[in-house]
Amino acid sequence: MSERGERVPGRVHRFRLAAPRPRLVSGDPTVRCSEWWPQSSRELTTVPDQCSVSLFPCHAGGFCDARHLRRTRAHGYPYSLIAHVKRSSALMILVTGATGNMGLPLMRRLAGSGADIRATTRDERRARALLPPGTQIEEGDLAQPDFLEKALRDVDKLFLFLEAGDPARVLEVASDVGVPYVVLVTSLLAETRPRSFVGQLALGTEQLMWESGFSGTVLRPWEYASNTLAWAREIQSGDVVRKPSAGLPSPVIDPADVAAVAALALLEDGHDGRTYALTGPAELTAQDKVAALSAALGREVTFEENGEPELLAKIRNAPEEVAEEFGVCFMESPGVLSTVEDVTGRRPRAFSEWALEHSAAFK
Asked: Residue 327 carries which DSSP code?
């Protein structure tokens, strides 16, 4: 054995930290080792021989610039031991929001990839009916620390979106348990309207992710096509969609296209450190969207403005103040971007395609 350690009899391997070079100690990878943790980073460290562990000396309290690392729990030493315990050789991906508008198409893309796929849900029965066979389903609330730690255990890559409860808390726990890679979905408002509430939240969460030492990819979509599901009740009960204003043209994106980019970031190399701004293929007004829904339903549906003068003035002069209620449709768009095609090799889907596929929700 090298100068970094010595093999001793019994069921432990012992290593004395010396040079900042990684060592892989291989044992039986089928044994669950995630509860093991080194107790000292200065003297000898015992490693159960049934675990497969990578040891990296690193400055105290910091992160090593390598994947598959845990943040150290031993502080105050010249060097700290960072260890990552792998349960198996298969890639483990955790998808939050797996039964949602973006989560479902993502789960379908990940199925058959060879990775182990785990999904969090609040309704296991519904999840089992919707998700691909073989999915590991964890039922619980991401706001509960015990559940969150259990769901994140042994995860190699995490799919997380801004609306997933408290994303900052999820990132904190993911860092603590050693998740190395995150695909984070935020909002293009981080770029176009960074001072808006959503823009600030997006930037803050992205900054936390990078500063926590994760490898990862950030996806910044614009307005989702699925936002029009908010019109479903009006269309089901009548033939007019009434809103305060038609808003500005907006390059709405199918959540399935965001999922397509996310799947590649989770399964392929080459996306680490990248931030992708995502839009659909064309800028549409509210009237355009209603016309597409009308065609998909095979009956006439029209759009009607009914805004009060004061609200219309606020929409024109301070669209950030109404964004929480009305979304980004009253904000100047970033234009049509080619990112989806650049990453996936195909054009993003038109809103008319989304409308036809989801027409049942409006009947």
From this structure: T
List Cβ neighbours of 336 (8 Å cut-off, separation of 6 or more): 251, 279, 280, 281, 282, 283
Handedness of CA 219, 220, 225, 231 (dihedral sign): positive
User: Has residue 107 got a pLDDT over 80?
Assistant: yes
Please return the burial class of 268, using the count of CB atoms within 10 Å of its CB with bins 0-12, 13-18 and 19+.
Answer: exposed
pLDDT for 17 equals 30
pLDDT at 291 over 50: yes
Residue 12 clears pLDDT 70, i.e. is over it? no
42 lies in some domain: yes
Which residues neighbour 85 within 8 Å (Cβ) at sequence distance 6 or greater? 33, 34, 36, 51, 52, 53, 70, 178
Residue 62 is assigned to a structural domain of this protein = yes
What Å distances lie between residue 68 and 120, 190, 292, CA to CA?
Answer: 22, 29, 46
Q: In this predicted structure, what is the pLDDT of residue 319?
A: 61
Question: What pLDDT is attached to residue 108?
Answer: 95
Q: What does the block give as tokens for 319? A: 């669209």
Pairing of strands 240-243, 302-305: parallel
- What confidence score (pLDDT) does residue 226 get? 95
> Given pLDDT bands bounded at 50, 70 and 90, which one contains residue 316?
low
Q: What is the 3-state secondary structure (H, E, C) of 201-258?
A: HHHHHHHHHHHCCCEEEEEEECCEHHHHHHHHHHHHHCCEEEECCCCCCECCECHHHH
Range of the domain at 54: 5-85
Q: Which residue has the tokens 């549409």?
A: 284
Number of domain units in the chain: 1
Q: Which of 207, 188, 208, 206 is nearest to 196 (CA)?
A: 188
pTM of the model: 0.75
Task: Give the helix ranges, DSSP H, for 93-231.
Answer: 103-110, 124-130, 145-152, 167-177, 189-192, 197-211
Q: Is residue 38 one of the residues assigned to a domain?
A: yes
Whether residue 314 lies inside any domain: the answer is: no
